[in-house]
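R.M. (postdoc): so does anyone remember the format we settled on? I'll just put the structure tokens first.
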């Protein structure tokens, strides 16, 4: 059973954080949290009456509060770990100013073109058409490690220790390639770091059993930025191995680039760090630290929320709004 964090207003003074990316001003900015905010779209699913009409924007506001201000989940580092929000040019300026006022670090990025090999009919009208731009994360080389969270994530406890977890955060050497194979595109870097949660749906108990298929999810990742890696990814997109299905463009690319039998196999982040099923919170010893769930939606499949998770979402949004009002944050 989910336990909603205290709704009492945190007794915090407002922190002044940079609202625009300026890493050269802070040499100690080595770790960062990040998310991606795309422009508002029309959602067919039910949204809560007490949230913004764009629930993803509301979720990013909530992540900003949870990571930077909430006494239950905020970064505990002596120097607060920044929260980067990657935004496309079409995101409304009012959304950017609201997030910046709350302490988020806004990083404007340019979209990446969808390769011709992608199923254009499938992707053109999909709300996932913009997510390939998440690959811009690998260009943020002012940071040594980034924990990426999809916008539809809520926190239940702090995540800082993920940056230094020895089983997940240690860089790996890229495995040797087949010397007889003709090189295509940019070569992979000599070392890399990519750990990710597994994409799951429905009750997750089955997904914890040995032998169950693993499916890399780009919704929750620990990575090291690298221009070399970025060039490698984009060279795949322009080459013969580019995904053709592309229902989830960046995820399909990462699944191929970090396949288990390839040169850079991915590490799986245990479900205790990130789960899709709110009911799992009470089933795992020690609990779950975050939920990747559309908590504004009724459970109908996918990662929509059950009523217990929806109630936690509503409580956290009220807590956020109360804090922002008390601190004079728009």
């Amino acid at each position: 059973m989910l336990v909603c964090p205290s709704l009492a207003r945190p007794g915090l003074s407002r922190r002044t954080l940079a609202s625009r990316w300026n890493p050269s001003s802070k040499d100690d900015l080595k770790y960062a949290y990040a998310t991606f905010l795309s422009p508002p779209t029309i959602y067919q699913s039910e949204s809560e009456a007490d949230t913004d009409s764009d629930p993803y924007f509301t979720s990013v506001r909530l992540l900003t509060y949870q990571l930077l201000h909430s006494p239950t989940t905020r970064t505990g580092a002596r120097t607060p770990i920044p929260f980067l929000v990657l935004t496309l040019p079409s995101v409304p300026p009012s959304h950017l100013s609201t997030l910046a006022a709350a302490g988020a670090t806004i990083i404007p990025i340019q979209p990446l073109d969808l390769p011709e090999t992608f199923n254009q009919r499938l992707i053109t009208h999909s709300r996932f058409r913009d997510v390939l731009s998440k690959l811009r994360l690998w260009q943020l080389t002012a940071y040594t490690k980034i924990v990426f969270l999809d916008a539809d994530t809520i926190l239940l406890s702090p995540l800082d220790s993920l940056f230094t977890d020895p089983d997940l955060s240690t860089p790996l050497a890229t495995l040797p390639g087949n010397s007889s194979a003709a090189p295509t595109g940019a070569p992979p870097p000599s070392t890399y770091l990519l750990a990710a949660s597994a994409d799951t749906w429905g009750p997750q108990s089955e997904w914890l059993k040995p032998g169950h298929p693993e499916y890399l999810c780009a919704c929750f990742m620990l990575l090291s930025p690298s221009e070399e890696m970025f060039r490698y990814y984009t060279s795949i997109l322009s080459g013969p191995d580019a995904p053709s299905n592309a229902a989830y463009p960046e995820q399909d690319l990462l699944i191929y680039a970090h396949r288990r039998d390839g040169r850079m196999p991915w590490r799986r982040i245990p479900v205790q760090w990130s789960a899709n099923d709110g009911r799992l919170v009470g089933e795992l010893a020690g609990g779950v630290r975050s939920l990747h769930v559309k908590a504004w939606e009724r459970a109908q499949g996918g990662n929509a929320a059950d009523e217990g998770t929806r109630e936690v979402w509503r409580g956290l949004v009220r807590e956020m709004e109360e804090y922002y009002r008390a601190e004079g944050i728009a």
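R.M.: ...and that's the designed sequence above, right after the tokens. Also worth knowing: The chain has a mean pLDDT of 79. The first helix runs from residue 55 to 68.
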